[in-house]
Design a protein that fits this description.
The complex is a heterodimer of chains A (334) and B (305). Chain A is mainly alpha-helical and 334 residues long. Helices cover 75% and strands 2% of the residues of chain A. Chain A contains 14 helices and two strands; from the N terminus they run H-H-E-H-E-H-H-H-H-H-H-H-H-H-H-H. In chain A, strands 1-2 form a two-stranded antiparallel ribbon. With 305 residues, chain B is an alpha/beta fold. Chain B has two domains: 211 residues, Rossmann fold, CATH 3.40.50; 61 residues, Alpha-Beta Plaits. Chain B contains eleven helices and 14 strands. A six-stranded mixed β-sheet of chain B has the order 6-7-8-3-9-10, sandwiched between helices. In chain B, strands 2-1-4-5 form a four-stranded antiparallel β-sheet. In chain B, strands 12-13-11-14 form a four-stranded antiparallel β-sheet, with helices on one face. In chain B, helix 3 crosses helix 4. The chains are: A mainly alpha (334), B alpha/beta (305). At the A-B interface, helix 1 and helix 8 of A face helix 2, strand 6 and helix 3 of B.
Amino acid sequence: MSNVLNIARWEWFKLQRRRMPWILFAILLAFTQLSIWGGLGMYQSAMATGGQVFIPQRLAMGTGVRSVACKDLLANPATAVPDGTPAQMIAALTQRCRVENGRIAGMYRTLQPAGSISGALRIAALLELVMLGILATSFIGSEYGLGTLRPILVRGTGRIPYITGKYLLLVGAATAALLLVCLAAAGSGVLVSHLAVPPPGGAPAQPAMGEVAVAFVRTWASLVTYLTIAGSITLLLRSTAAGMAISLAWYAVEWILIQVLSRVFEGFDKVADYLPIRNINALAGESFTAAPIAAASGISTLHASLVSLAYVIVFAGLAAVVFRSRDLAGAAGG
Amino acid sequence: MVEIDGLRKQFGNVVAVRDLSLRIPRGGVFGLLGPNGSGKTTTIGLVLGLIRPTSGAIRLFGADIRTTHGKALRRIGAMVESPAFYPDLSGRANLRFFQGIGTGRGRGELERLLELVGLGARADDSFRTYSLGMKQRLGVAYAMLGEPELVFLDEPTNGLDPSGMAEVRELIVRLARAGHTIVLSSHLLHEVEQVCDHVAILSRGQLIVQGKVRELVQSQGAVRLRTTDDARARQVLGTLDWIASLREEEGGLVAGVAPERAADITRALCRHEVFVTEMVPLRMSLENYFLRVTGTAAAGTETGP
């Protein structure tokens, strides 16, 4: 074990001197922070008017009034709308304003520390996942590309301890990045919560820290599953380019495959419930809302966890067995 | 130090190493010779555990590598094929990394090795800016990390200019004098002849011959002699079974025999009243010897001293 930890330590020595992980982390941090501070701007703009509702064109004609601030409408419905607006229409607009107020309250919720962390986790579930795919395939595949695997193994590290140490470092880096993003989100959450005035109906209930912790663990598990699959593919193919192309393309293509094959083959939906990306996204759970291509279709957390675990065991096991027994021949030891 | 018995490696239908048995003694410089594709690098890869043997046994420091390979590797340094390092890291950082994952001996060792290979002044420059010679020298420094007892250097002078080759040769001799056992794989026979004590010659994955360089070359030596009666001398020498070959050349006779047996020749001829008027030892270069035993050159290519 000390050998594995020593390898992880020295792999970090190497990783920290590369630009790529820092650039990827900076992008992730920037996106999560932008969502928080951008959210504050949008919230304050919404709060200035209490939200807006649009008036039907036939009523607005000739009045020059196209929309009404909800703040005015809820304060005095009769004067806020153009003359001649039917009472039924005013009631409908008022109702829409109440919905708008609910939306603003929801925005306020994301500007609190716990809400900010949840928002950061939602972004990380997609963005960090893709970045980890790039980092893991590059970090593992470059040993083949540069031919450095041979001088490493000649040092007597042992093949399995070496690849385990490298994997542990990647998991550690993914965890640290997620933690730092969450901490930065919490810090920004504290700041923006002081800057944001609570909505008219009062501050809504915050997500409990326990829920945030569960979301963190689910996001982390989905990241580690994807990282393991992407890293294993790279190890099996001995190429950064092939590993990156397959793992990233599969992420995007799986959803399309499901859509097409479900139409062609009856019952394919059941098969699709066992495909990796669908389960990885289901594992990320509610924290994942990024794109329709990733939408999980009613897969339970238990199902997603077990299927993801099975993929981790099969891919990592296969990669380890092949890596252990494969000859390092040829110019670059590939 | 290294004992190889019945080693065989097959890649698909290609047999890279065929029933190889070899002994590498402790101390000095051992040359592993062979034309390209003769199985030198595969043999080193097999000893280092980078390649799995199809059959056969390898013992390092007296122990079978199947049971104690990790431990044995920590007593070995190796540069296999081209020196592969991380281009973004400096020479020093590269060595620190490889020192860290293996048997490192602190920063003092790094500085000593960088000075030894003449990279002290450029140690903090990134590896990508190094010339080919500097890369090779960093490879030698890498192979020396952890004060290994046994060092494999696979084609260490590949791509170097003559002065770079001389530098690396000098370095190898210095390392051997410092007590390391060096295994030098090369197809540059002149280089091997200059630095190696022992050699093993491989061809098409098979061991052709193994022994001390001096003995191998001398065993294939010859003498050119002129006598008072060459016809009679030819008759007499033709009856001696320790003379491998006999031919006429440039108005004299060339006898295939080690020059050390010159006295035996004169003694045999004297008994038959034939007297030697001139005798010149012909030394065979390792290159000629190599070409002869690997069957790629015509026989009779001896050169004068």
